[in-house]
Each structure stands twice: as structure tokens, then as C-alpha cells.
Amino acid sequence: MYVCLCVGVTNETVSRVVATGAQTCSQVADLCGAGSDCGRCRRTIRSIIDSKGRNHHE
Amino acid sequence: MSRSTGRTYVFAVEFRVPDVGNIWPILERHQESLVDLGARYAFVYQSIIDPNQVLVIVGIRTEQPLLNLLRSRYFFEWFDAVGVSDLPAVFAGETVERFDIGEPPSVGTELVVAAVTPVGDVDDFMRLVRDSLAEFGRAGIRRTLVYTAFDSPHEVMFLQQLGDTEQALSWAKRSDVASTWLAQAGVGAYPPVFIGRFMNAMRMSDPDTAGRH
Predict the structure, then answer these.
(1) DSSP labels for B24-84?
(2) Which of B90, B91, B148, B194 has the highest number of chain A CBs within 10 A, making it the mutation to test binding with A?
(3) Which of A56, A57, B66, B178 has the fewest CB atoms within 10 Å of its CB?
(4) In sequence order, what DSSP letters do the residues of chain A get, joined into one string?
(5) Rounded alpha-carbon distances, angstroms, from residue B29 to B35, B75, B79, B139
(6) Nearest Cα to Cα of residue B213 among B64, B5, B24
(7) pLDDT tens-digit map of A9-52
(8) Given an 8 Å threshold on Cβ–Cβ distance, is B189 in contact with A6?
(9) Three-point CA angle A45, A12, B12, nearest 5°
(10) DSSP-derived 3-state class of residue B169
(11) Residues 6+ apart with CB under 8 A from A11
(12) Do B89 and A3 touch (CB under 8 A)?
């Protein structure tokens, strides 16, 4: 699925950068561009970050 | 007359709005922009779990590349118009196969169960779907559509049409087959499984040219 329409970034790409250590929307934006333009996808990006954090702690 | 060489895209997006009654009038007002994109149809479903949640599916045939469509100002205008500030993830793909299992529901009455889910292998998933058709029929599923995502070879969207609410709820909540598909629903960017009722549909006649924007 496309998470960031402005830059065309997918949930898989965001998940990958989160797996490498990105823990904030700004860090995700720096690494892959998602959320770096209009910023309206940041809530979705946050949900991906949070879900990866939950998986890590399970 | 030359035949269009464009590609057909299916976009699906689920979101919550303050007033679901605004969705269709707004889409109708923006019909021209839909046509401009190359849209051939638009379907809107309303969740029976959360009445302010809707699923919109748009089929677009265009020569434009996918990223041009995603960046189209039209998408942002539509979201603005219906009152969505935080943009949800958008599924973009194409139809793999459609299975008509039983008598289709009367037009305008169908219930749908839909979800986007990661899969290990699309071919394996399709084999599972074909092997499950008899079970689908017993569960009251009349039609199953499967779409593959353009951005991932391991992501599909499935949409199943049923005749009534009880069957739809039972299938989504109690089916062993459905539970394996829905394991990722509601995780991260994936929206929860959508169970909803048809609201409205728009079909556009073939344009003279492919979408220009």
C-alpha cells in the first residue's frame, strides 16, 4: 500500500527503515522521504512505527 | 480508431469521515476530475461496524504512470472535500481474478468483506482461494475478487460479496480461512477488515482519450 502519496513511498519501505532503527516520523522522512512533503501521512507512519515496536517487544 | 494502450488501475482506500452523507454528493461534484484521471467506475461502501467508515474503490484506465496518479491534486482535493486530514494508506493494484460463486446479490444490496493483506506468494494464495470456493459458497459468499498490489508482489486485496449482514459478520469473524487472511488486518498501515454495505456507484463511459492528469 502507498503510505506517502506525495513521494510514492509504500508501507514496506517505511517498515524497512523502521526495522533499521527509525523511531520517529522525522527519522522516517530523512531515510525514505515519507512524510517529508505535505505531512498528512504521518499518522499512518506513526502507526507503522508503533506496530513494529509492539512486535519487537513481544 | 486506435485502441487505448493504457493500463487499468484499481485504487482502494478506507477512511473515516464526520458525515458519511457527504461522500456521494462530493464525488458527484468531482465527477469531472474522476473522468479527467481516466476513471471508469467508483464504488462506495459504508461500514456496518462503524457507520462513519467508508471504503472507496475506483477503477482508472490511463496511460499515466502510477506515481503521477497518486500525486494528482485530485486525490488531495477529494480528501479535503470529505474532511479527511490524515491521509490513509492507498491500495493500488490490478484484478487477478473474479469468482462468481452463486447468484449475485441484487444490485445495490450487497454486503462486502474486504481487506488488504500480505501474502507469501500470490500464486499460492490464488490456489488457496480456488480450493476454498466451495466453503465460500456455503458461507454465503456470492462473488470473490482478488487484486494484486503494484508496489509489492506479496500483497493482495480481496473483496467478497455476500447477500446479508449476518453472513458477512459470521464469515469475517468465525471463518478459519478468513482468519488466516485477516491476520495482518489492522496492523500498521493495513486497515482493519472492512465489512460494509454498498452505498453508491458511478460508472463513466469510455473517454475519447486516456486520462490527462
Answers:
(1) HHHHHHTHHHHHHHTEEEEEEEEESSSTTEEEEEEEEEESS-HHHHHT-HHHHHHHHHHT-
(2) B90
(3) A57
(4) -EEETTTTEEHHHHHHHHHTT--SHHHHHHHH-TTSSS-TTHHHHHHHHHHHHHHHH-
(5) 12, 14, 13, 38
(6) B64
(7) 999 999 999 999 999 999 999 999 999 999 999 999 999 999 88
(8) no
(9) 75
(10) helix
(11) A1, A2, A3, A44, A48, B89, B188, B189, B190
(12) yes
SS3 B210: coil
DSSP state string for B104-160: PPPTT--EEEEEEEE-S-HHHHHHHHHHTHHHHHHTTEEEEEEEEESS-TTEEEEEE
What is the value of ipTM here, to two decimals?
Answer: 0.90
Low-confidence ranges of chain B (pLDDT < 50): 1-2, 209-213
What's the full length of chain B, in residues? 213
